[in-house]
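B., you asked whether I could sanity-check this one before it goes into the benchmark set. Here's the sequence:
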Amino acid sequence: MIGILGKKIGMTNVYNETGKIVPVTLIEAGPCQVMQVKTKDNDGYNAIQVGFGTRREKTVNNPDKVRFKKAGAAAPARFVKEIRVADTAPYKVGQKIEADIFAKGDYVDVTGTSIGKGFQGGVRRWNWTGGEAGHGSMFHRAIGSLQSGARLGRVTKGHHLPGHMGVEKITVQNLEVIDVDKANNLILVKGNVPGHKNGFLIVKEARKRPKGFVKRKQAPTLSKKGVKGQTQKK
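And here's what the prediction gave me:
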């Protein structure tokens, strides 16, 4: 499993090889820095801790300052997440991961925080049908009866009710990578991704791929600058 952290820039349209317009989302992916490498022997699982973006040093507590200093980061990272990997051997602390770990034609899963909608009623939050639309009806978008009948006589746990909507962790699977712009650290994925503009995202290799998808056979090449041409394992 390979992955990278990024930021949602916005949506636009591009033309594919057949001249058809394809809606895409621009993701500023990396460069990210490996803050920590966790192994199964020491931590019980294989993962890398990756940092993206920068923030002011005055907003960072002392434990995080020490962690970023050990990783050799020029500035404290604004967005830090762990990404599970099958093998930690190719990764070293302080190594850079850039957008070119993905290529055109790959499929990715994008995780982000959905846009907040505030307090919403059941019609919008849970797609209730509501009552009659006529002027004589006194029931349009109200809750209605809550209990499950005379025998139970109470509201069952998990009942759909009005409440806060949005600001949830959402993962959109199987998004096709339309293009990768390494010079500008951009990944163009087909369709939409969770969250608002400038929202942070986690872009990982797709767990499920379309039937007939052929994986790249290019072997990974490591350098001091980062990871290039990461292989997708079967």
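One thing to flag: Confidence is low (pLDDT under 50) at residues 218-234. Otherwise nothing jumped out at me.
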